[in-house]
Structures are given as structure tokens and as C-alpha cells.
Design brief:
This protein is mostly beta strands. Helix content is 0%, strand content 58%. Strands 2, 4, 5, 6, 9, 10 and 11 form a seven-stranded mixed beta sheet that branches.
């Protein structure tokens, strides 16, 4: 069974940094796009950043220049380096991946809380 397990969330002061990690485990043939989303209470989950297996990245405008997404294909792992954090970055961050086993299925991690204090 495929699982995505996130780590690295926590409490940080504004201006600080955090690094999130997400590792996919189980029987995996390949992973195409991996990404990070975030959600705050009462709001829809929003895209933060994505990265393809070839390394092409996209970012939502509010994090450009502050966050960096990366991945190690051989480890089925994706990272999100978050710098210059702001209180408005406070959210539950979710890992997402399109994983091919016999067909391609979209998977979500369980989420990790990021809290930025002012």
C-alpha cells in the first residue's frame, strides 16, 4: 500500500525557516508530479508548489522567492524549504503525488502543521 509521510512542521517566528519532507513508500513504479498544498480552517486547500520528475517547478505567487521545492527521485522524496516565513503562511501543509503502480493514482499525506508567530 502506498503512503506519503510528511515531517518537518512546527512553530517558528516570523522571518524564520522550516523544511518540510515527504517520503512515499510502498510498491511504486514511478512518481510523476509531486507537490505541496496548504489549508487553513474554513478555507479551501490551495496549491503551494509542484515539481515534475524532470525538475520543472511551479509556485503560487505568494511564496515565490521564499519557498523552494525539490525532490530526490531515487528516494521518492519531495522537500519544501520555506524561508522568510510570514504569519499568513500558517496552515496545515499536505504532500501530494501522482504515483504509478499499475495505473496512476493521486495520493495525499496526512498533513503537518506549520505555525508562524508574529
Amino acid at each position: 500500500q502506498v503512503q506519503l509521510v510528511e515531517s518537518g512542521g512546527g512553530l517558528v517566528q516570523a522571518g524564520g525557516s522550516l523544511r518540510l519532507s515527504c517520503a512515499a513508500s510502498g510498491i511504486i513504479f514511478s512518481i510523476t508530479t509531486m507537490g505541496w498544498y496548504r489549508q487553513t480552517p474554513g478555507k479551501q486547500r490551495e496549491l503551494v508548489a509542484t515539481i515534475t520528475s524532470g525538475g520543472s517547478t511551479t509556485y503560487t505567487d505568494s511564496v515565490k522567492g521564499r519557498f523552494t521545492i525539490s525532490r530526490i527521485n531515487a528516494k521518492n522524496t519531495v522537500y519544501l524549504q520555506m524561508n522568510s516565513l510570514k504569519p499568513e503562511d500558517t496552515a496545515v501543509y499536505y504532500c501530494n503525488a501522482d504515483i504509478r503502480v499499475f495505473g496512476t493514482t493521486n495520493y495525499w499525506g496526512q498533513g503537518t502543521q506549520v505555525t508562524v508567530s508574529s
